[in-house]
Every structure is written in C-alpha cells, then in structure tokens.
Amino acid sequence: MRRKLAAGNWKMNGTVEDLIELGQIAGLAAEDGPTVLICPPATLISRAADAARGTMLAIGGQDCHTAGSGAHTGDISALMLRDAGATHVILGHSERRADHGESDTLVSEKAVAAAAAGVAPIICVGETLAEREAGETLAVVGTQLAGSVPRSLTDLVIAYEPVWAIGTGKVPTMAQIAEVHGFIRAELGKMSAAFSAEATPILYGGSVKPGNAAEIFAVADVDGALVGGASLKAADFGPIVAALEAAA
Ligand code: PEP
Fold first, then answer.
1. For residue 176, what pLDDT is reported?
2. What's the pLDDT score for residue 136?
3. CB–CB of 126/93 below 8 Å?
4. Would the CB of 169 count as within 6 Å of ligand 1?
5. Alpha-carbon separation of residue 162 from 13, 123, 139, 179, 185 (angstroms)
6. Residue 248 confidence (pLDDT)
7. Contacts of 32 by beta carbon, 8 Å cutoff, 6+ apart
8. What's the pLDDT at 219?
9. Which SS3 state, helix, strand or coil, does residue 152 take?
10. Which residues pair with 224 in a beta bridge?
11. I need a labelling partner for 173 at 20 to 30 A (CA). Which of 16, 86, 137, 187 fits?
C-alpha cells in the first residue's frame, strides 16, 4: 500500500497573513487520510510549522543546497529546513531547472543532502511541450530519472510535472498520464537501488484543480498530486484532498 500525498507548492507566494489560510488547510489533514503537505516560501517555513503543530499537516521546503552550511549567500541547507520544521523538500522543479539552470546531477546531489538531513526529497521530472510534440517524452523523463534520483535513497517521492501543464490550465490526457507514470514506476524498478519502486509515491503535477482531480487520481500509478495555484486556498485544495482520499 503506497502512501497518498497531496502536496502544495506555494512558490514565491505568501506572507504572514496567509498563515490563516494555512490553518484552514491544516484542518484538511486527518490521521487516516492522505498526507497533506504545504511547501511555503522559505520565509514562512518556521511559522508554518508552528501553525501546523498539533495537526497532521506537514510542512516542506521548495529547494535546498547540497551543503549543510557554509559560504553560499542566499541559499538554504536541508539541515536548516529540518531545523525550521520541514519534513519534505521539492527538488528539481522545472522552474528551478529553467530559472537557475539546475542539472540532473545537481538535483541528485541535493536529494542526497536532503535525505542525510532527514528531509524526504520530492524529485520533479517532466517534458517541455516541444519535447512532447517531438515524441521525446519518455526519453526525456527517463534521462531525468536516471540522473536526478540517487540509488542510495531509501525514501523518496517522484513528481511527474509536464512543464507545459504547469500554471497553464492544460492537462495531459489520462492515457498520457498513465503512460508516463507506468514508465516512471518501471524505470525506478530497473534501478538497482535502496528504495522500492513499488513503495515510491509518484505524484502528478500540472494544473490540478478541484474539477479534474478525481479523474487524475483514478489513473493507475498516480499516488497524489503536486499542486501549485490550487494549493493557495483551502477552498480549492480541500476538494483535491477529498478526491485523493476517495480514490481507490
Ligand atoms: C507546480 O507548481 O508544481 C504546479 C503543478 O503548478 P500548478 O498546479 O499551478 O500548475
């Protein structure tokens, strides 16, 4: 039985006043339901963790450095995330790969650092529209997996996020999602690794909304979602969490 996970990525959104919304999202997390995770901007992690204390809501980061400490102005280590109350960290999000030139190797090194600090990595992979149209989706995702996922990890989450579906309102067909998720599970299974492919949650991300969540969660090998825009408000995230809970 794989863990179901509804993860919210607040990106560069949120100030202290949004902790009220976070409190309402905390009310969506139940002991017998899916894991509910919010990854706020780094400035809010500590306060979000305080606000979530006593609830089942988990708090995560959106990136970490490969080092534990040192002369890296503006960066945050996994140890610091853990210290602030984070249990998870999103790594290799396409916005970081594009905006900061993050390579598969760097993502892999960050994942090792996160795991060593006791923070579970959520490793993102996904093709651009040009790559999909060129029929390269599985090759691209396979290369990203091979380069970004350290074989030494025992506990990780993969997020399949087609770049062209993020923040656009466009969603792949359910058959396309099924194809890529099945491929990811098979590729993980081929890695001679410390983790179990069968036990690894694979999230779908890209324009997940209350109106399409149930259909997406019914797809084989979809164990939850990484949600951007619709995770900012409990009114939107609530039905997504409920749809995940209801999924078989
Ligand atoms: C994301 O940021 O990872 C994401 C999937 O965003 P959105 O849900 O807004 O498409």
1. 98
2. 98
3. no
4. no
5. 21, 13, 13, 13, 16
6. 82
7. none
8. 98
9. coil
10. 5
11. 187
CB atoms within 10 A of CB 101: 8
Is 9's C-beta closer than 6 angstroms to any atom of ligand 1? yes
- How long a stretch of residues is the chain? 248
The CATH code that applies to domain 5-247 is 3.20.20.70
CA–CA distance, 28 with 32 (Å, rounded to integer): 11
Our answer on whether the CB atom of 206 is closer than 6 Å to any ligand 1 atom is yes
The DSSP bridge partners found for residue 59 are 38
Q: What is the pTM of this model?
A: 0.98
List alpha helices for 53-199, DSSP H. 78-84, 94-99, 104-116, 129-133, 137-148, 174-190
Which residue's C-alpha comes closest to atom 7 of ligand 1?
Answer: 228
CA–CA separation, 142 and 24 (whole Å): 38
93 belongs to the catalytic site: yes
Which of 199, 142, 234, 242 lies closest to 3, judged by CA? 199
Kind plus residue range of the DSSP H or E element containing 243: helix 234-246
- DSSP-derived secondary structure for 3-43: PPEEEEE-TT---GGGHHHHHHHHTT--TTS-EEEEE--GG
Query: Mean pLDDT for each consecutive 10-residue tract of the chain (248 residues)?
Result: 94 97 96 97 98 97 98 98 98 98 98 98 98 98 98 97 98 98 98 95 98 98 98 98 96
Q: Which atom of ligand 1 is nearest to the CA of 229?
A: 9
Cβ neighbours around 24 below 10 Å, total: 14
